[in-house]
Structure formats: C-alpha cells, structure tokens
Amino acid sequence: MLVEAVEFMLTPGPRWARDAGLLYQMVAFRARFRRNRVAWQDHIDRCHEFIMKAATSGPSNNRAIVFGSGLLIEVPIDYLARTFKEVVLVDAVHGLPERWRLRHYSNIKRIEADITGLIEKTTTEPLNARFGGQQFDLAISANILSQLPLFANKSTIKSMEYQSDSELARAIISSHIAGIRSIASTTCLITDIERISVDGLNQIDRSDLLHGVTLPPPTEIWRWDLAPRPELSNDYDVYSRVGAWLNIGDA
Ligand SMILES: C[S@@+](CC[C@H](N)C(=O)[O-])C[C@H]1O[C@@H](n2cnc3c(N)ncnc32)[C@H](O)[C@@H]1O
Fold it and tell me: Contact 207/194 with Cβ under 8 angstroms?
C-alpha cells in the first residue's frame, strides 16, 4: 500500500488524467501485475508474439504508434524500438519505471493524451485529426478498447446526448477502431472481449466488455488469467477472453 501511495504521489501526469482516475488505475494495474505475474505470463507472451508478427507484416517500418502503452507489459518495446525508426507511445499516464526504462531510446517519443478525446478536451474530432493528420506504418491498440469507455466524462455524455452509458461505450469503441484504421496502413488491435468468473468448472458470471459491439472474427484468441483466487475472491477465479486482430475491418 505504501509503495502504491508513493507512486501515486510522485508520478507526473496531467490533471485531467488524475481527476478521471487514470493515474489511480495505473498504480492499481501495476500492483495487480506484481501479484499475478506468473498467471499473466502466457497472455503477455501472446501479446508480444502477435505484435511482433504485426510489425513485420507491413511494407515499411518507419513509424509505429502504440495506443495504451501503459506499463509496457504487453508491448515488446525493445523489439519495436529496434524495428521502427520512430515509435510513439500514447497513454494518459506514463509511469516513472517506464520513463526510466525508455531513457536511452532516442527514437521513442511519449505522448500524454486522452485517446478518446472525451476526457481532456471533450471533442469528437477523429483520432487522426487529433494527431495532426500524421500517418504511421503500424498502429497498435494495446489492450485498451474495453477500458476507454470507463473514463469518459459524464458531463460529455450529457452534452452529446447519448441515451445510455452503453450507447456511449459503443460509440467510443467503434470510433477507436475507425481511428486506428485512419492513422496507419497496418493495424494491430488487442483487447479483452469478455470477462468470466468461474468456481471450479462452473461459470458463475460473464460480462461482455464491448457492450454489444460485434467485431469480425479475431485473427487469434486466448485466455488471460486476470485474477486467479484470491485476487478478487477466495471462492472464484476471473479470466478474460482476449482477441487480437491484424488489420481489422469496420466495427
Ligand atoms: C490495461 S492497461 C494497458 C496496459 C498496457 N498495454 C501495458 O502493456 O502495460 C489500459 C491503459 O489504457 C490507458 N487508458 C485508458 N483510457 C485512456 C484514455 N482515454 N486515454 C489514454 N489512455 C487511456 C490507461 O492509462 C492504461 O495504461
């Protein structure tokens, strides 16, 4: 707890990210990773392998952009830095250990930005316009799609007249997919799709993390043992089904 409190106090980041709970979420995610490192390893390996495949699938390797670089757990950053002339990492918050880890890379740029545009600036401007119309060879969405709706600003929901939180979530999800497609010639989307709680062999809960948005069949799918007991409960384990798409079509 003390480690997390110190990290929360010392990590630099924009006010909007702190206010929206994104800094708190980053600190909590790191603590959860520390506790469940072994259970997460297969998921992490699958993410790295998929991203490395995507990185070699396009015609050129000049510029890559990673949305949701976070703690650089799921992102093979050393490989990307070696493979691309420039790598841009976008997240609401970049932690102190990640800043330290990246200090020697002159070809990695960190950007603190609200990927939805709905927290920081409350804008519906498309993703590529918000990044100055820049184009990339590869855009990676690194396990953030299901997270993006969680931090959307409630006042924005009102002003944009969405009927429900789910409707807003669906709009954010579809817009993010259109956004990565507009910004790069090759796209690599990794996201958790469903969260499932199991007590032994019995499934006791299942939630659709994409709020009913139907995506094309994933290129690959795997299980992420997110919270084996006793992480969330002594009585059940929680896992996510994760999908990975190379060059996804419209959602
Ligand atoms: C599950 S974590 C991703 C972990 C990361 N891929 C890694 O390898 O460590 C989700 C990330 O999405 C980021 N995020 C969520 N909503 C965001 C938003 N609106 N703008 C920018 N980043 C956001 C969080 O800060 C967090 O780092």
Answer: yes
Q: Is the pTM of this model over 0.90?
A: yes
How remote is the CA of residue 117 from the centroid of ligand 1, in Å? 14
Cβ of 116 less than 6 Å from ligand 1: yes
Domains with residue ranges and CATH for the chain = 2-246 (3.40.50)
From the CB of 29, is ligand 1 less than 6 Å away?
yes
Confirm or reject: Cβ of 148 under 6 Å from ligand 1.
Answer: yes
Quote the ligand 1 centre to 202 CA distance (angstroms).
Answer: 31
Ligand 1: centre distance to CA 201 (Å):
31
Catalogue the E-assigned strands of the chain: 63-67, 86-91, 108-112, 136-142, 184-199, 202-208, 220-227, 237-246
pLDDT in tens, 161-206: 677 888 889 999 999 999 999 999 999 999 999 999 999 889 999 9
Residue range 102-159, pLDDT digits in tens: 999 999 999 999 998 888 766 667 777 777 788 999 999 999 999 999 988 655 555 5
Q: Which residues contact 100 (CB under 8 A, 6 or more apart)?
A: none
